[in-house]
Fold this sequence. Notes:
The complex is a heterodimer. Chain A is an alpha/beta fold. Chain A has helices spanning 43-50, 93-103, 108-115, 119-122, 138-151, 168-184, 196-202, 224-236; strands at residues 3-14, 17-28, 33-36, 58-63, 66-67, 78-81, 156-160, 188-192, 205-210, 213-219. Chain A has 2 domains: 1-77 and 158-240, Rossmann fold; 83-153, no CATH class. In chain A, the strands form 2 sheets. Chain A has a 6-stranded mixed β-sheet with strand order 6-7-8-3-9-10, sandwiched between helices. Chain A has a 4-stranded antiparallel β-sheet with strand order 2-1-4-5, covered by helices on one side. The longest helix of chain A has 17 residues, at 168-184. In chain B, helix 7 runs parallel beside helix 11 and helix 17 (305-324) packs antiparallel against helix 22 (422-444). Classes of the chains: A alpha/beta, B mainly alpha. Chain A binds chain B through residues 48, 51-55, 72, 75-76, 78, 80, 82-92, 95, 98-100, 102-104, 130-132, 134-135, and chain B through 245-246, 248-249, 257, 261, 264, 268, 271-272, 275-276, 331, 333-337, 339-345, 409-410, 482, 485-486, 488-489.
Amino acid sequence: METIISLQNLTKIYGQQKVLDIPELNFFKGQSLGLVGNNGAGKTTLFRTILDLIAPDTGTVHVKGIPVSHSEAWKTFTGSFIDESFLIDYLTPQEYFDFLGKLHGWNKEDVKQALIPFESLFQGEILNNKKYIRDLSKGNQKKVGIAGALLCKPEILILDEPFANLDPSSQFLLRQMLSDLDKNTDITMIISSHDLLHITEFCERFLVLHKGLIVKDELRKEETLAELQAYFQAQIMPEE
Amino acid sequence: MILLDILQLQRKQFFRSSFFGQGLAIKILLGLFGLYMLSMVLLLTFVLPEIFRSLAKDTTAYAVFTSVLLYYLSFDIIIRYFLQKLATLDLEKFLLTPLKKSTIFHLSLSGSIFNFFNLFGWILLIPFAWQVIIPELGVGIGMNWILGMLALPVISHYMAMYLKRIEVVSNFKGIFILAAIILLGFMDYMGWISIMKISEFIFSPLYSSPITWTIYWVIAVMMYIINYRLLSAYSHMDDWFSGDTSGSAIGRFDWLEQKGTTSAILANEIKLILRNKRTKTALWLGLFILFYPLIFYTNPDLNSDYWKVFIGVFVSGIFMINYGQFMIAWESAGFDGLLTRNVPQYEYFQAKLWILAGSCVILFILSIPYFFIYDDIFLPHFASLLYNIGVNSYFLLWAATYNKKKIDLSKGSMMNYQGTGATQFLIALPLLFGPFLIIAIPLGLGMDNLAWIILGTLSLISMALHKFWMKGIIANFNERKYLTADGFRQKA
């Protein structure tokens, strides 16, 4: 399989604490990867490092063979949503999508077409609504962010906790969308979630992060869900 | 005593507010500013009677005072409307307590009287009576006058509060009333109506009949009741919040968005300015400063050539100085998105430069009437405009890349120093006084026109180096972007 993102010798230290320590990790084109780990495991730090929002203390991130810190090219084919700081909160959702489209040389009609698949997810509350993004509920903000990440047909998709804050119907719809995307396109997804059920549904590979270290890296098999549940249950047991 | 507890809470809120949590340097600076204001007011109370005596040629000082009182009152209401804070939203936490709603509203309304603006009014008006009215008209009328005057700040206080409140809960725009006040002022200026006469008509009864002061207090109480009624009618908190949030998206910039990426980013920036409290304040301040030349140029002591450039830079550059310092920090809430999206950096900074330069040009155009009123200021002002565009704008963009303090755009208004550090004050100095260094020598030699030409030419040369400056700014931005992004992620 073709490597699309590769990390070498990646470490990040805050104060005394090593929050990320990954000697080598490769992501493969078209493979969807689920990232799990308890709070403080370093998931968001890993995402931010891949997206060149944080400078690692050692090591580099290459996307398609080019270091992310040396080029802007990866931004044209990478869609991401980590938190609200990825939104422009004084715009309406429509204006936000139009702006993102514009950055890819799209016109408003292109954006309109690209938004059609999201209509059921939006439930009529996002588009044609004069509210600014900052005035939307947390759940609707999340939908805007996810749609923004997916809008311009990215080759790489990075989502941090996409299911959190979503209502049950939307969670189901989103899972369906991501699953279809995985099946029908060559997209490389990296998605973190606390909900094991959701990501075992469509991810092909799983990564468990614990205090900055990769403790599990496996392909999906029949018993993945049970294994992951057993792993996280073991975390609450007193140390043997 | 639950009321006492609430007063305690108010006191804590005051002393624990972010204002007192500021750095020591800012505290001292603001403290000095407060002292300065207070001493100015005190000084004014001594000078005021003299001023009015000198103005009263064939009439009395108090008659002149009476005729200008309405100007003062209108100005007072306008200032309060923009600067005074509406305390309503603080009430939310009390609405859940077992206190009666009416008690809470009365508490909030009456408590709001004790503020700086009213104090200012009283300090200004009462000593005047002591020095002018009582010696000239006797103690009886003097007391009548004082009692009446005490009501005036109260009236304008509740008037301004009412305008602000009604604007939140209904579609009515208080700004129309303010516009009406300004229009009346203009009509007065043109001589179509006489506000002086109206003012005399309203306030001269204070000298004639001894209990007129009660009328003013009746009006004050009525203003209070109107406010109370409004609060009771909209006692559910969502009434106040919905007005704040449901405001539909203002401004359409289709024509800008249709064009290239730079224009799309530019359109976003304009939306940012128009849709956020904090940035709107900067806009208002810019328009307010337009009146500065009136203060300076009417004073012959300050009418020197050095000041012309200072005022020129200040008037056309005030928005730029105010806004440009935080050029990147304005977007702190969405900064991660900016870094991960395909936003071309050159176009990004280009758009910002357009905003800064554009604001200078607009303010310059708005200040054109001054060129007809005062001689010999066009050239220095024009050279200052070039300097603002050619030098200050690049300097600000460069300085802005060093700013890593988060700004909350929804917390608006004057005296908000969030995101401000000592650096921000330092930055303003070279912006305003930089031109002095350039023009000092030719002006010292008495060659005014040469000074303006040198200033303008140097600015044009700087503009020609556009690409070079941009490269430096972008390099600096990239070098610091991890630090900046980290700073913006911290809670303010």
